Amino acid sequence: MRIASTVSDSIVDGPGLRFTVFTQGCPHRCPGCHNPETHDPAGGREVSLEELAEQMGKNPLTDGLTLSGGEPFCQGAACAALARLARERGLNVWVYTGYTYERLLEGELPGALDLLEQTDVLVDGPFLLAQKSYQTLFRGSTNQRLIDVKKSRAAGHTVLWSRPDPLAHFARPES
User: Fold this and answer.
1) How far apart, in whole angstroms, are the C-alpha atoms of residue 66 and residue 117?
2) Percent of the chain residues past pLDDT 70, beyond the cut
3) Is residue 110 part of a domain?
4) Which of 19, 36, 55, 120 has its CA 20 to 30 A from that of 91?
């Protein structure tokens, strides 16, 4: 897999403490992208799945894996393999993409359907500088969606992810 970098303890790429992999190579080249160094598919460095799996397993407090970019769906099969390992370890998987969910479902990109199968939440759509916002949870621009992939696949239509209430388990039953 060709990557730009990893972050072992991200708190901005999804909920909880996350192991984030920034893949190398992106065809979207969104103006204003915060990772323009990831655009060149020949940049970055090659790493093995084993090396990434080892890094991912170093922190026992890690809640999830985030695949960002670059464009993870340009390396769909490799990203799916890493996501599968993460899920086997009980981690949730978030994937950032410049493609729309609907486009990925068409299955034209190699490995896309396999990666979607391993994805819990998909942050889809290109970054749009004109819609940039610091108010959007886990997104860079307001056009991007947080999609609950499992619920979407079961429902047959796009279901947006909603953040669980962290205090819900403290609620008292009504008398």
Assistant:
1) 15
2) 95
3) yes
4) 36
Instruction: Find the helix or strand (DSSP H, E) in which 64 lies.
Output: strand 64-68
- Residue indicated by tokens 């056009």: 143
In a domain, 134, yes or no: yes
Amino acid of residue 86: A
User: Looking up tokens 């190398």, which residue turns up?
Assistant: 24
Report the distance separating Cα 3 and Cα 23, nearest Å.
4
Q: Tell me if 156 is assigned to some domain.
A: yes
pTM exceeds 0.90: yes
Q: Is the distance from CB of 73 to CB of 25 less than 8 angstroms?
A: no
Residue 175 lies in a domain: no
| CATH number of the domain bearing residue 149 | 3.20.20.70
What pLDDT is attached to residue 166? 72
Complete edge-to-edge strand list for the sheet that includes strand 145-148: 45-46, 2-10, 18-23, 64-68, 92-96, 121-124, 145-148
How far apart are the C-alpha atoms of 109 and 120, rounded to whole Å? Answer: 19
In the structure encoding, which two tokens stand for residue 90, read together?
């009980």
Q: Which long-range contacts (CB under 8 A, 24 or more apart) does 104-113 make?
A: 104/73, 109/73, 109/74, 109/76, 110/76, 110/77, 111/73, 111/75, 111/76, 111/77, 111/78, 111/79, 111/80, 112/73, 112/76
> What is the gyration radius of the CA atoms in the chain, in angstroms?
16
